[in-house]
Design brief:
This is rRNA cytosine-C5-methyltransferase. This protein is an alpha/beta fold. Helix content is about 45%, strand content about 10%. It folds into four domains: about 45-175, N-utilizing Substance Protein B Homolog, Chain A (Orthogonal Bundle); about 185-225; about 230-325, no CATH class; about 325-540, Rossmann fold, CATH 3.40.50.150. Mean pLDDT is about 90; it is low at about 1-35 and about 255-290. Bound molecules: S-adenosylmethionine. The site of S-adenosylmethionine (SAM) has 19 residues, from helix 17 and strand 6.
């Protein structure tokens, strides 16, 4: 519970305030006779959990997909908290956070002061109310009354009155009506129009559009896809479990409904929140006809369209399978298949391995070829996650704590190197609802030197004829092509050399990979995170 929460004062009631010798009238001021008896606010469990999660995200910069699962687990232990409450709480948290910028613009129209002058907990309750009113099928009167009750419980009566007044103003129109008012016409300012209509910061719209190209329809499809719930995808690690066996196990074990299962190893968990338009049905998710589908592109992928709890699968608990977006699987597969020029193919490196999803797939693929994997990670605790994820790998491997910009290995030590660099994560906005509002354009400048240094050292680590895969979970051109161009150019100037391979050739059957030679995956085109991949072969 938020430390700012307050219980409203209890009403003593007229009879308890009477004292002997006092007339009833003298102790009962006119005002109190007319007001309703003061009652305790009803605590709606789903909205209370949602509010607590929003406070944690707001106050402590927490990640929603990390704070929500323990809150749900705790609430489940309390009387009366059911699966439908968990589904509703999840939908409310994810929807409210994703649409935060748009809801803020609506709320700003309905309050008589700048938003920064509204107390953050009050703003959280207002956003929660705005999402119910504008982004779900919850009837307006129910959304207002339940949110005002929440406000009474967590903010007190005075502020609940303010919440009530603001929500009534918001409820006077639907989302389309509000967007007509707050968003400029497309022709007047396309980026601002799209930013408000699709709930992305303007600079993110601009960056995504630069990377995607195309016209209005293309960028709108991408922005819409960012606002959808991603499927949970598993990877069947080759040599450890077949895709068919994983599908069978997942089909048997994973039930429909809300998911609070693990995300990629050590990553924020992947929630099974309802899509934005499904909130009215939250908690009544029906059984999927076929819960475990094959992947679209990766031969090792199994898609759980309905979420479920992958952590409950024995194969996942035993590391034979894991939760992994198909885009990440494709990056590992493309590196594993890229043609080398001469030499051996026995020494593979993952230079930025934490938390270990790609390393585990690479390790399994390497084992199948008689190669070994070194998985390096700078942060000790993340190296621990890598070690856990690789446990049981069928072939030789080592996990090392190492700084990829000052490597412990000699130049030319490896045949294949993956460098999946730290980045803004603008390619994974579907999974991290608050990330788009937290990131700033200045963050790019912070990552730029590290990304270049890591790629430079990866190219030094690979032998002549060997291949480096440079990957990011961001399509931002400053983190993708600009890095590769700069580093390849500088290598040439230093007397080295690297040629770009056509990465599309390593992913036969995957459409819409762009003009090459590097590839950019997209949520709306491939159903994956927006992963970028360049393949570089050392020539000198
Ligand atoms: C994008 S993540 C890698 C994700 C990973 N490939 C996977 O699939 O699970 C980048 C990782 O690089 C690590 N890192 C950051 N700076 C590093 C450095 N100088 N050397 C090695 N690793 C670094 C981060 O701690 C983070 O774990």
């Amino acid at each position: 519970m938020s430390t700012r929460s307050r219980r409203p004062e209890q009403s003593a009631g007229p009879t308890r305030s009477q004292q002997p010798g006092q007339s009833r009238q003298s102790r009962q001021p006119r005002q109190s006779r007319q007001s309703k008896p003061h009652r305790r606010p009803r605590r709606d469990p789903a909205r209370t959990v949602a509010f607590e999660a929003l406070r944690a995200v707001d106050e402590r910069d927490a990640y929603a997909n990390l704070v929500l699962p323990p809150l749900l687990r705790k609430a489940r232990g309390e009387q009366g908290f059911q699966g439908r409450d968990a589904a509703l709480a999840t939908e409310l948290v994810y929807g409210t956070l994703r649409w935060q910028g748009t809801y803020d613009a609506v709320i700003a129209e309905c309050v008589d002061r700048p938003l920064r002058a509204v107390d953050p907990p009050v703003l959280d309750v207002l956003s929660l109310g705005a999402h119910q009113l504008l982004g779900t099928r919850i009837p307006g009167h129910a959304a207002v009354s339940a949110t005002v009750e929440l406000a009474r419980a967590v903010l007190g009566d005075g502020r609940a009155k303010f919440v009530n007044a603001v929500l009534r103003r918001i409820a006077a129109d639907d989302l389309d009506g509000w967007l007509e008012r707050i968003a400029p016409p497309y022709d007047a300012d396309p980026e601002e129009h799209l930013a408000l209509r699709h709930a992305h910061p303007r600079w993110v719209v601009s960056a995504l559009w630069d990377a995607l190209g195309g016209g209005r329809a293309d960028i709108e499809q991408l922005l819409d896809a960012d606002n959808e719930r991603p499927e949970v995808t598993l990877v069947a690690r080759p040599g450890r479990i077949s895709t068919e066996d994983l599908r069978a196990e997942a089909g048997r074990a994973v039930g429909p409904g809300e998911s609070v299962g693990p995300g990629e190893p050590g990553e924020p968990r992947e929630p099974g929140e309802s899509g934005r338009s499904d909130a009215g049905a939250a908690g009544s998710a029906g059984a999927a006809e076929t819960p475990a589908e094959p992947g679209r592109w990766s031969p090792y992928a199994v898609r759980l369209a309905d979420g479920g709890d992958p952590g409950a699968l024995t194969a996942v608990r035993e590391n034979r399978a894991g939760v992994q977006d198909e885009g990440s699987q494709l990056v590992a597969l493309a590196l594993a298949h890229a043609p080398l020029d001469g030499g051996g193919d026995t020494r593979w490196l993952d230079a930025c391995a934490g938390p270990g999803g790609k390393a585990a797939l690479l390790g399994a693929l390497a084992a199948g070829r008689g190669a070994s994997l070194v998985a390096a990670e700078k942060q000790r605790h993340r190296a621990g996650l890598v070690a856990r994820t690789l446990e049981g790998n069928p072939g030789p491997y080592a996990v090392v704590i190492a700084d990829g910009t000052r490597p412990a290995w000699r130049p030319g030590s490896f045949d294949r190197v993956l460098v999946d660099v730290p980045c803004t994560g603008l390619g994974a906005l579907r999974r991290r609802p608050e990330a788009r509002w937290r990131r700033r354009p200045e963050d790019l400048a912070g990552f730029a030197p590290l990304q270049r240094a890591l790629l430079r050292e990866a190219l030094r680590a690979v032998r002549v004829g060997g291949v480096v895969a440079y990957a990011t979970c961001s399509p931002h051109l400053a983190e993708t092509r600009a890095v590769v161009d700069d580093v390849v150019k500088a290598l040439g100037a230093d007397g080295g050399g690297a040629e770009r391979l056509d990465a599309r050739e390593q992913l036969p059957g995957v459409p819409a990979l762009g003009a090459g030679p590097d590839i950019q995956l997209w949520p709306h085109l491939h159903g994956t995170d927006a992963m970028y991949l360049a393949l570089l072969r050392r020539t000198a």
